[in-house]
């Protein structure tokens, strides 16, 4: 996947417009449009700014995968992608639910192992 496609996906996941992204990053909306259409690529500083905004790595934006780092677990990758698209309030809610789920799972595991 190329940068523009990845950026388009991130914009859609965050439910914002290209214009909103441009305003947030102080980048002309036409420039964002050129990125999304793969007509232009950002410079290094802009790439870092976009990565920071979406809370992803520059490697992710560039679709760079080091063989030792690639996760074999696609479910983890999917969870991370979904989590990054959530609002801060939603993230807090799901983290609390996940912790509750884990505490209940470990509690059941401990009681089953005592039997």
Automatic annotation (TrEMBL):
<dbReference type="InterPro" id="IPR010982">
    <property type="entry name" value="Lambda_DNA-bd_dom_sf"/>
</dbReference>
<dbReference type="Pfam" id="PF01381">
    <property type="entry name" value="HTH_3"/>
</dbReference>
<feature type="domain" description="HTH cro/C1-type">
    <location>
        <begin position="7"/>
        <end position="61"/>
    </location>
</feature>
<dbReference type="GO" id="GO:0003677">
    <property type="term" value="F:DNA binding"/>
</dbReference>
<keyword id="KW-0238">DNA-binding</keyword>
<dbReference type="InterPro" id="IPR001387">
    <property type="entry name" value="Cro/C1-type_HTH"/>
</dbReference>
<protein>
    <submittedName>
        <fullName>Helix-turn-helix transcriptional regulator</fullName>
    </submittedName>
</protein>
């Amino acid at each position: 996947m190329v940068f523009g496609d990845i950026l388009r996906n991130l914009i859609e996941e965050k439910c914002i417009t290209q214009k909103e992204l441009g305003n947030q990053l102080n980048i002309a909306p036409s420039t964002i449009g050129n990125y999304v259409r793969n007509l232009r690529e950002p410079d290094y500083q802009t790439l870092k700014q976009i990565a920071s905004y979406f809370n992803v790595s520059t490697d992710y934006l560039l679709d760079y995968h080091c063989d030792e780092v690639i996760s074999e677990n696609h479910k983890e990758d999917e969870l991370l992608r979904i989590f990054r698209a959530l609002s801060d309030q939603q993230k807090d809610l799901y983290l609390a639910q996940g912790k509750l789920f884990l505490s209940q799972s470990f509690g059941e595991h401990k009681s089953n192992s005592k039997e």
